[in-house]
Amino acid sequence: MGDKWIRAQLADANGIKLCRHFNAVIDTEVTGLGPEGDYVEFGEKKFFLLKILKWLLIKDMWQSHSELDFVIFSDFDVAWKSTPNLRKIFEDSSKAFLAIQDDSRNSNDRFFCPGIMIWRKSPRAIMILDEIDQFQKSRIDEGEWLPDDKALNFYLKQNGLYELVIPLPDEEYVIGHRLLHLMLGIGKFKLRKMTAFHANYAKGNDLKLKFINASQINTFSLKRFYFIALLLLTKLRLRIFRI
After folding, report:
1. What are the boundaries of each domain within the chain?
2. Of the candidates 11, 148, 216, which has an alpha carbon nearest to the alpha carbon of residue 208?
3. Residue 51 exposed, middle or buried by CB count within 10 Å (0-12, 13-18, 19+)
4. Which of 143, 140, 154 minimizes the C-alpha distance to 49?
5. What was the pLDDT predicted at 243?
6. Among the four given CATH numbers 3.90.550, 2.60.40, 1.20.120, 3.30.70, the one describing domain 2-168
7. What are residue 99's phi and psi, to 5 degrees?
């Protein structure tokens, strides 16, 4: 069903190639999750088990496409406005294996969001993906519903890998709680500068879609006032934004 829907939406798109992967390990994991369903909320057991699959999927990309130097992973609630310049992000002198969306509260408390990740292929990157996968899976098997973001951040911190991770510019790869900044044009947050928006701080399909639509308007659109009002009301009701 999902494959058919995606192909239907991209029927008129030019230059986009779809490649459906069939991986026995991933298929086994998905089968173990039970019957297919609708939207799965954060906090549900199935949500955490689904999130483990991203590590397997990234490795499968390289197994199926050995010619790829990079893999861009994007959550379903990410809207892209432009294509990232991978060579600019990973400069020739860089030894980094990962560029990722930055959701840090401050420079002393680093926290990265795996909703947008760009992995550079290397034996070490593949090893790290294996270790994060096994670590998260083992913690869940022990009864701790450990989400993928905490598993990744714990691994990076414990292994002292921050110097090999590139934080993506937050004004270009906008995290969900910064959408109001984007709509108001506060500081460095400008619609024209945005590359991608991640609606990860919105709960439910309807709200996520509204926030994604907001991120796609142009600077001079009058719809900005509607979305600003919506965001302020949402902030008052759910308190999901940090300002």
Report:
1. 2-168, 174-238
2. 216
3. buried
4. 140
5. 40
6. 3.90.550
7. -115, 135
